[in-house]
Amino acid sequence: MSQDFAQVADDVIAGVGLLRHGAPEAMKAFAGLATAATSTQTIDSKTKELMALAIGIAVHCDGCVAYHTKMAHQHGATREEVAETAALAIYMGGGPAAVYGADALRAYDQFSAIGGG
Question: Of these four, 4, 37, 88, 113, which has the most CB atoms within 10 Å of its CB?
Answer without folding.
Answer: 88
